[in-house]
Design brief:
This is Acetate--CoA ligase. By secondary structure, the protein is α/β, with parallel strands linked by helices. It contains 18 helices and 31 strands.
Amino acid sequence: MELQIKDFEDYEKTYRYSVEHPEEFWAGIADTFFWRKKWTNVLNWNFKEPNIKWFENGKLNITENCLDRHIYTNGDKPAIIWEPNDPTESARVLSYKQLLEKVEQFANVLKNNGVRKGDRVCIYLPMVPELAIAVLSCARVGAIHSVVFGGFSAQSIADRINDAECSLVITADGNYRGTKVVELKSIVDDALVQCKTINKVIVLTRARIGVSMIKGRDVWWEDEIHKVESQGNPAYPAEEMDAEDPLFVLYTSGSTGKPKGVVHTTAGYMVYTGYTFSNVFQYKSDEVFFCTADIGWITGHSYIVYGPLSQGATSLMFEGIPTWPDAGRLWDVVAKHKVNILYTAPTAIRSLMAAGDQYIDDKDLSTITKLGSVGEPINEEAWHWYNEKVGKGKAPIVDTWWQTENGGILISAIAGITPTKPGYAMLPLPGVQPVLMDENGKILEGNGVSGNLCIKFPWPGMLRTTWGDHERCRLTYFSTYEDMYFTGDGCLRDEEGYYRITGRVDDVLNVSGHRIGTAELENAINMHSDVVESAIVGYPHPVKGQGIYAFVIVEDHQKDLELTRKDINATVVRLIGAIARPDKIQFVRDLPKTRSGKIMRRILRKIVEGDFANVGDTTTLLDPSVVEEIKEGADKMK
Ligand code: WTA
């Protein structure tokens, strides 16, 4: 079966086939991959428990698909091009052959340090090639990786390590970000005070800063590599994995409680990320693909590492930030490495747009042929700027909608093949069956409707469970609507049948493309000793998409509130990480509550949007006068 869709007619035909014959369709796609042993059954599923199995009894290792199988035909092709934070430092290129060598080497390091199939390994590394190497080495050994984004705090790392009972952490001394050095090892050390399951810490040298190294526990990456070299660099044949063996856990925030560990399994995830990468971006064999996400997020997992590599693509990894040394850096990277496909987030586009066209106008972006957007709704202004300034009106923009739980892109245009429209994710990919639901659980048929977005049939890349708590998975995603996966997003299907994602309908914020759970953040704020209660809502933010607005009741209003504000911020940064720091904190006497004590967030949302006239009926509140007070306070915050 041909992997890539050829034209719009082919898309329609393929889509129809994928819905009418899903098993035959996905078997055909899976056949383009390398299996040690073929599956005996394509799909076994129910959304009730849920229990979802793809390619049952198939045996494989994803790294043989991402590395070994390309060696014979494409061994010298660059697999990873790495651009460092500091533009004066040299870039690095790893061919498929070199990447495989490094992965086998590090797989041996993992083995020497006691890692076995099924063990969980926490990875807290900067965006350096060793991060991709560490991820792939885990997969080679059959260990389950849990990558934690470098912006999370020690407490968040500890929570994740403890939840998955990781036995080993891979980190670096420090991480460069613009002019800053983040002391990663020191953050890990703080985390490990709370972790009983960790036996070993492997520390990569990156920033060459002083770190504490505990005898018997902490070892240097470089020393461990030397040991493998002195053993004669033995090959590391890939561990044979079952199709449904977990490949990784990735923690993500929801509307309640602590982040949950989304579990993805080997074969389905591989097939889905490979297929969607190849199709959505219409990747051609010599193209350079640049996804600006961090591998600490799902976008990096699927479209820096696994998707591109399984398709033998060249994937560019960037350590730095788009605005350093100046707001032209991203365009310099594009020009330097002759990037053909750029995949980035609306928040980055908006911040570069705000910096001014002088940073982009003289850059050579002539190699760009396709553009992608991900992570949050893209506003029309940003879409047009992206189209005109970056794509010069010639590069199709694929606005890709998906989630950590989905493994890969679900709704998106296919570059150059299906139509595009600003702000629209457009059409479901083959194999994806979206439905819109009304509040009463009825399916909204036809076009020109808006509702809650669900998916009614499994796709190979979907989550299988949440680590250690299957019931939570069922409750979160499969219990709102019967026999449906519920996304948590609202969606419009316009008159022409095109999909536009309108944002979360639950209490999850999307701040600069990062998911922030309001309950998790409120819990963190409430941990501060002066805080009685808090409520978080999102407000429209020109660059971040959504900003974090905190309403906080403190114990003693006579205190220096400026200082309390700083203390609350410091508490959030310590408990979650800088990405969750509130943009605005408004101190209030009380919150708008119903007689049963429920906070009316709807009212708070209207207030932070400045839409005072539409706060709605407040007569059912315990104390309607708080609304007026909060409005006055909010006015002063502007
Ligand atoms: C939002 C990121 C509009 C959405 C891959 C989803 C989007 C959440 C888009 C998942 C898009 C992602 N248009 N909204 N193209 N892409 N979202 O898990 O609300 O970090 O539920 O996955 O981001 O975020 P996550």
